[in-house]
Design a protein that fits this description.
- The chain is mainly beta and 553 residues long.
- The protein contains five helices and 41 strands.
- It has a five-stranded mixed sheet, with no helix packed on it.
- The radius of gyration is 43 Å and the shape is elongated.
- The protein starts with 11 loop residues before the first strand and ends with a helix.
């Protein structure tokens, strides 16, 4: 071992039983020197807190040791040296296992670590190469709970500190965890965030239930470090603030809020079927907090339709809605914000229905506007309720404006004698591709249908028996809602003693006052080329009437 040169320093040094104990001089700075030999664990110099000067010769190591408690953190730093780039600092536990190290002079050479247990710890200052020669100053600080923050020691579940709502200033030292506990009811939500920190990127937060199972976590400082979650049950909850690495040291501000029903919205608590709030028709302002579900209930008749939509929200992409019947079976749902979040469905029976508004994740928090409308027959169209054979509306007019709401069925009836013909067509609609038209005979057997909107929706049939025939307009899905115009016509088999062309076909007769295949062809050509016959445009229904007339004659 080379002989070290004497450092000229001002110090008061008390040596007791071979332990170097620094004392304060008049300026309040503590100094001491390392004592040779101390180049391995066995010869480590016993020290306490303070500032120590030493020297590395020919790349040797200087070892120091001290006793500390599991509630404390150990901070070591090399603050000055002849050749700082050539030095390394290491910390070891009592088993001489390395806990931390630093040799990056750009950031300074230091290490701070929460002590895993009570016992002896070693600090090594070493040269980075065999040729390193440098004096140095070593600063040692044992951070006690009293020097940490108002809550320490609180580094595990057993020592978790009770925390009030609001903002609290605290500190992470040497990668430790800070644990807090609070009480919350099943009707509450828990909101936690770190608003400021010396090193926000290096912190994370976690939430645990009474069984210490993790419920939520966040360590993404780009979006902030926070979470809000609905308390699943009444009891104790634990908050953990921790460093992302074992050397993280940072002050931070922790904000805690237990959101009670009174602080939520006018309907809370309404987070299950049993607590579902009665909701009026119209718009209601409400709020999802921490991924909860909001339940509402309303009454509807079998003749009604139920229409629900979320008109606006802080976070529309994160919300969904569902509808349940009285037995709590889901009828319909929507969570597609690209098309809006809504549904309209015909009530299958009279009774209670439940609306659920929910977050798409357990941390969704968003204000929203809920619109609810129970569409009664009077609000539907002039024919409603006409949603089955028994309630079929008489069809008396050639043009009928009507409406499908929530995938319902609209039925119309018409009386035909044997050999009479009927034709019907939907020419316009809000959503033509979502509609179907069907025709049933007096035995309620389907005899014609069309759901191909490329050619329009058209049916035509000649009665083989006398009786009541039914026209059905249906939605292609349970949520189809569309206004439509139904055009219908009833024609008769001409009497053999009177071959006069019906009045509504007279304009197609040409010079011979009769209708044949050529007249039908002329009508088709006129329809395709948008030409008029007899001063009027030609449509599909006109052609159907001509075909039926030719076939019947």
């Amino acid at each position: 071992m080379a002989t070290k040169r004497t450092l000229a320093i001002t110090l008061v040094l008390v040596t007791t039983a071979g332990i170097v104990t620094p004392a304060f001089t008049g300026g309040g700075v503590v100094y001491a020197t390392d004592t040779e030999p101390n180049d391995d664990f066995e010869t480590a110099v016993a020290i306490s807190e303070g500032t120590f000067s030493g020297e590395i010769v020919d790349g040797e190591s200087d070892f120091f040791k001290l006793n500390a408690s599991t509630t404390e953190a150990l901070s070591a730093e090399v603050t000055s040296a002849d050749n700082l780039d050539d030095l390394t600092l290491r910390i070891y536990d009592a088993d001489r296992t390395q806990l931390a190290s630093d040799g990056n002079a750009f950031q300074g050479i230091d290490a701070t670590i929460k002590l895993p247990e009570t016992g002896t710890y070693y600090v090594e200052v070493a040269g980075q190469s065999a040729g390193t020669n440098s004096s140095y100053t070593l600063n040692i600080d044992v951070v006690t709970p009293a020097e940490n923050d108002q809550f320490a020691p609180n580094d595990d579940f057993g020592s978790a500190a009770s925390i009030p709502e609001g903002s609290s200033e605290a500190r992470i030292v040497g990668g430790e965890s800070d644990f807090y506990q609070l009480e919350a009811n099943a009707t509450d939500a828990i909101s936690v965030d770190i608003t400021s920190a010396d090193s926000l990127d290096d912190l994370a937060i976690r939430l645990y239930d009474a069984e210490r199972s993790q419920l939520a976590a966040d360590g993404n400082s780009f979006q902030g470090i926070d979470y809000t979650i609905k308390a699943p049950e009444t009891g104790t909850y634990y908050i953990e603030v921790l460093g992302q690495s074992q050397q993280t040291t940072s002050n931070y501000t922790l904000n805690v809020d237990v959101v009670t029903p009174a602080e939520n919205d006018q309907f809370a608590p309404n987070d299950d079927f049993e607590s579902a709030a009665s909701i009026p028709e119209g718009s209601s302002e409400a709020r999802i907090v921490g991924g909860e579900s909001d339940f509402y209930q309303l009454e509807a008749n079998v003749t009604d339709a139920i229409s629900v939509d979320i008109a606006s929200a802080d976070s529309l992409d994160d919300l969904a809605i569902r509808l349940y019947d009285a037995e709590r079976n889901q009828l319909v749902a929507d969570g597609n914000s690209f098309q809006g979040i809504d549904y309209t469905i015909k009530a299958p029976e009279t009774g209670t229905y439940y609306i659920e508004v929910l977050g798409q994740s357990q941390q969704t928090t968003s204000d929203y506007t809920l619109n609810v409308d129970v569409v009664t027959p009077a609000e539907n169209d002039q024919f409603a309720p006409n949603d089955d054979f028994e309630s079929a509306a008489p069809l008396r007019e050639e043009f009928s404006d009507a409406r499908i709401v929530g995938g319902e069925l609209d039925y119309y009836k018409i009386t035909l004698n044997e050999s009479e013909s009927v034709s019907a067509e939907i020419r316009t609609a809000d959503s033509l591709s979502d509609l179907v038209i069907r025709l049933y005979d007096p035995g309620r057997t389907q005899v014609a249908s069309d759901g191909n909107d490329f050619g329009g929706l058209t049916i035509s049939h000649q009665a083989t028996t006398s009786g009541t025939y039914y026209i059905e307009i249906a939605g292609q899905s349970e949520q189809t809602t569309s206004s439509y115009e139904l055009q219908s016509n009833q024609t008769f088999q001409p009497d053999s003693s009177n071959s006069q062309v019906p009045q509504n076909l007279q304009r197609f007769t040409g010079g011979d006052d009769s209708i044949g295949n050529l007249d039908v062809l002329n009508a088709v050509n006129a329809a395709n080329s948008n030409q008029n016959i007899g001063g009027q445009s030609v449509g599909n229904l006109d052609i159907l009437r001509l075909v039926n007339y030719v076939n019947d004659n």
